[in-house]
Design a protein that fits this description.
There is one protein chain. The chain is mainly α and 178 residues long. It folds into two domains: 81 residues, Rna Polymerase Sigma Factor, Chain: A (Orthogonal Bundle); 79 residues, Orthogonal Bundle (Arc Repressor Mutant, subunit A). The chain contains eight helices and no strands. The protein is elongated. It starts with a helix and ends with a helix. 15% of the residues are buried.
């Protein structure tokens, strides 16, 4: 761990596009942010993704960082906001995929919205790249596990997870734009 005084000088260098200084910040705080996000997600791969996104966002938002703030706390706040945003998008997405509503007896408006959302989701899936579409359909509609999909497609289980994650992300982006 580096001293607080050193952190401020490294941050100043990183703000001035010093890649080595930014690498030092990543190496210093990556484990702390990863551990925090892992405690929230309980999923190693997702925690890695969010931690990586956090440092991208930190790099993008450096101009808003105020030196009187604790850098680690500032970065963890960014990580938590990314986590929270993904959770919201995931809830909406899975409600659409599962065709469920929180209320057991949907109103006529909810039924109409559900039908429209299902149409949109089918259309959105239809516009995905072939590999993304294939993994989404096999996992969500055919109920196949990652292992089963990997065997059928002749790819690794990790590749299936990554493809599914990217496909979901593309669907989230399409959904949030409409």
């Amino acid at each position: 761990m580096i001293k607080q005084i050193d952190v401020q000088s490294i941050i100043k260098k990183a703000k001035n596009n010093d890649n080595k200084a930014f690498d030092i910040l990543i190496n210093t705080y990556w484990k702390d942010i990863f551990a925090f996000i892992l405690s929230k997600t309980k999923n190693r791969e997702r925690a890695i993704d969010i931690t990586n996104l956090t440092f991208i966002k930190v790099f993008e938002k450096f101009s808003t960082y105020k030196e009187e703030l604790n850098f680690k706390n500032w970065a963890i706040t960014i990580a938590y906001n990314i986590f929270r945003d993904q959770e919201k998008k995931e809830k909406i997405f899975f409600l659409l995929i599962d065709n469920t509503f929180i209320d057991n007896e949907p109103t006529q408006l909810e039924i109409l919205i559900k039908k429209e959302d299902a149409k949109f989701l089918k259309k959105a899936i239809g516009h995905l790249k072939v590999g993304f579409k294939e993994v989404i359909i096999k996992h969500y509609y055919e109920g196949m596990t990652f292992s089963e999909i990997a065997i059928e497609l002749g790819i690794s289980k990790g590749n299936v997870r990554t493809t599914l994650h990217r496909a979901r992300k593309e669907l989230y982006n399409n959904y949030s734009q409409n």
